[in-house]
Design goal:
Largest sheet: none
Strand content: under 5%
Distance between the termini: 49 Å
Radius of gyration: 18 Å
CATH architecture: Alpha Horseshoe
Structural class: mainly alpha
Length: 189
């Protein structure tokens, strides 16, 4: 008696660029605010919910289907970060108390620790991933320190560093797509 085996080939697209772009564009726009160029408004909140939150969460589910634990947990977690951040901003409109600088600083600090753990996981990967998670850890560290101390200069520096972090993610997403499209390594990762 012989056994028949079926080989299933995954023909779904790479969800990485979607998640990275969701992170990149939302991070850049929020940190332009943090750098002092405009106030938080409906544009940042909409990006946080639908692109930062929604697209990353979808990319995380797609990574889960592909068996990529790192990508799945990263995209779903940072997607949830954006959703929780927007909720924190709008919750006072529904009678839920606004966080003070200690609780919000703690929120940012725990995300920084989480990002540091992800940074360590990237150390055996591509250089762009290492640089991205290092810059993300630095961003959360600056944001939490600036929030705890209520120091506007540190928060402004965090804004500029956050723009750089978002641009790194934008580059990585673009490199993945361009390299896949041309079937060769045009932009190094």
């Amino acid at each position: 008696m012989s056994e028949n085996s079926t080989i299933i080939k995954d023909t779904t697209s790479n969800p990485g660029p979607l998640g990275l772009y969701g992170f990149a564009l939302t991070t850049i726009l929020l940190n332009i605010h943090n750098a002092g160029f405009y106030q938080i408004d409906a544009m940042i909140m909409a990006m946080g919910i639908f692109y930062g939150g929604g697209s990353q969460f979808i990319a995380g589910i797609m990574e889960w289907k592909k068996g990529n634990t790192f990508g799945s947990v990263a995209f779903m977690s940072y997607g949830a970060f954006w959703l929780t951040l927007v909720f924190i901003w709008i919750a006072p409109n529904f009678g839920i108390p606004k966080p003070d600088h200690i609780s919000f600083g703690s929120y940012l600090m725990i995300w920084g620790i989480f990002s540091l753990i992800f940074f360590f996981q990237t150390l055996n990967g591509k250089k762009t991933g290492i640089i991205l998670f290092a810059s993300l850890f630095i961003l959360f560290a600056l944001l939490s320190i600036g929030t705890f101390t209520q120091n506007p200069t540190i928060l402004k520096i965090a804004g500029y560093e956050g723009i750089i972090c978002g641009l790194i993610a934008f580059y990585e997403a673009s490199a993945i797509m361009i390299n896949e499209k041309f079937k060769k390594n045009i932009l190094p990762l």
